[in-house]
Design brief:
This is DnaA regulatory inactivator Hda. The protein has 233 residues and is α/β, with parallel strands linked by helices. It has nine helices and five strands; from the N terminus they run αβαβαβαβαβαααα. β2, α3 and β3 form a beta-alpha-beta unit. It is elongated and about 60 Å long.
């Protein structure tokens, strides 16, 4: 197999902006550190992260794949929210890869073919000394897994609870994303966006994209009146 990243099945790819550089960790700094060093000599071979919607599970799994690919390692990202209705054929021969990142595990628990395929894939990856990342909305022991051996395997690695960012951390995340887009976002404007905008960071980042395009078009700096007009608030 080529040393290039493995061809992702069914057209599933990685978002270009899903990197560690544009993720503000807040209370999740220890997890991000472990993910960043997973391929070091003392890195953890299996990491399981869980948390509610909007905490960045998918972002971090894709960031790990981007980082591994940059080191000429073979990766595979499997979002089961999109792929779980297919048979688990994409898990065949995964031990030939260096990193497998399985997102939305909760979407396939209780389904015999998927649970058996995940169990065998886990064993092959472990025996081959490869790395595995799994993300779900609940910790392993709260998943309604029917295959006892799979339930046992999911507790073997390190488990992290991915926590929601505080309001201050959400503001810093917004300012970081603005900085990476080349935008100057004053604190008072960032606070205004957080106060008036959606709670989900993904929606706030989409608002930033709108503001970026509007400010470039109008050749205007970001001020509260300009933001209010550009976002029709």
């Amino acid at each position: 197999m080529s040393r290039a990243p493995a061809q992702l099945p069914l057209g599933v790819g990685l978002r270009d902006d899903a990197t560690f550089d544009n993720y503000h960790p807040g209370a999740n700094a220890t997890l991000v550190e472990c993910l960043s060093h997973q391929f070091d000599d003392n890195g953890e071979p299996f990491l399981y992260l869980w948390g509610g919607d909007g905490v960045g599970r998918s972002h971090l799994l894709q960031a790990a794949c981007h980082q591994a690919s940059a080191r000429d390692l073979r990766t595979l990202y499997l979002p089961l929210e999109e792929l779980g209705h297919f048979p688990p054929l994409m898990l065949e021969d995964v031990e030939r890869l260096d990193l497998v990142a399985i997102d939305d595990l909760d979407r396939v628990v209780g389904r015999k073919r998927w649970e058996e395929a995940l169990f065998h894939a886990f064993n092959r990856l472990r025996d081959s000394g490869k790395r595995l990342l799994i993300a779900a909305d609940r910790p392993p022991r709260q998943l309604d897994i029917k295959l006892a051996d799979l339930a046992s395997r999911l507790t073997w690695g390190m488990t992290f609870h991915l926590r929601q960012l505080s309001d201050e951390d959400r503001m810093q995340a917004l300012k970081l994303r603005a900085h990476l887009r080349g935008m100057e976002l004053p604190d008072e404007v960032a606070r205004y966006i957080l106060h008036r905008g959606a709670r989900e960071l993904s929606e706030l980042f989409r608002s930033l994209e709108v503001l970026d395009n509007a400010s470039l078009s109008a050749q205007r700096k970001l001020t509260i009146p300009f933001v209010k007009k550009a976002l029709d608030w």
